[in-house]
Amino acid sequence: MEINQEYFNSQIHKATQPLPGSIAMPTHYKLPVKKKYEGLFIIDFFLQLVPRSTKDIWLEKINNQTLLINKKPATELTIVKGGDITEHSSAPKTEPWINTTIELLYSDADIFIINKPAPLPMHPSGRFNRNSLTEILKLAFPKEDLKIIHRLDANTTGIVILGRNKEIVKTIGAQFESKQTQKTYLALVEGLPTEDYFNTNTKIGLDKTAGGGRASSENGIDAFTEFKVLERRKSYNQTLLEVTPHTGRTNQIRLHLAQLEFPIVGDIGYKDSNYFKNHPLTYTTDCLFLHAWKLSFKHHNQDFLIEAPCPQKFR
């Protein structure tokens, strides 16, 4: 079944009025233990996994026997090992506001392509559970089994491809893995680069920072990004850039531009790393000027190019 824009909009509206996360409910977390955390006491494991939490939070859950490991109550002396499954629930609470102006750019029997607004997390994580793209789509299209093929940050707007069957997810996903796709972003940055073209290949670490982002690391993984100046707005000391990431690391564009001393307008935390020590990675408003603009890939053995209109805020 092909989906037209009118039907898509009506289903999204029904699923988001009111916002799913506007009603206070507990959130259940089920987290596997990765090998690198093996040998830690369970409280230390969670303090690393959730950096802004406190020891008292996890002690209370242990005392209430609501912190489980492999379905059994944990104790203060529980040591985790790779493959363990931990579980706990939050107190009932509402979730932060999200932008639900999700636009359908293209659909056929195999895929949806949407223009994602911001802020809107792709999937449940941290403070967001029901207020996330995947959960909204489940409510809006319960007969579909939509799968995200690639991801954007909660605060990044633009193109997202959703697969309607396992075969297409595998086919297009393989193109992202083998770098056969070409992604082009728009970024409005602070400052005025002197060169019209520049690039960076600073490596990015795998470990999360306090807010959940990433930092550069000599022992990290390769990351390469190219930049082209589209417009210098001298009166604002800002520059509009066309950005081509040749790798797909977490927060790659945001981190690379901040390190080049051209932070993205609105990216408070990457401009000042101290911000994330007391604030989460997802900003509460549509403040980040980063947009997934164009994407080319092979679809049904044909070259396919999709473009998400430049958001009004960039103008």
UniProtKB/TrEMBL annotation:
InterPro entries in alphabetical order: PsdUridine_synth_cat_dom_sf, PsdUridine_synth_RluA-like_CS, PsdUridine_synth_RsuA/RluA, RluA_PseudoU_synthase
Entry protein name: 23S rRNA pseudouridine1911/1915/1917 synthase
Enzyme class: isomerase
Name of a matching Pfam family: PseudoU_synth_2
EC number of this enzyme: 5.4.99.23
Classification lineage: Bacteria, Pseudomonadati, Bacteroidota, Flavobacteriia, Flavobacteriales
Single Gene Ontology MF annotation: 23S rRNA pseudouridine(1911/1915/1917) synthase activity
Homology family: Belongs to the pseudouridine synthase RluA family.
Domain of life: Bacteria
Record key words, sorted: Isomerase
Residue intervals of the Pseudouridine synthase RsuA/RluA-like domain: 111-259
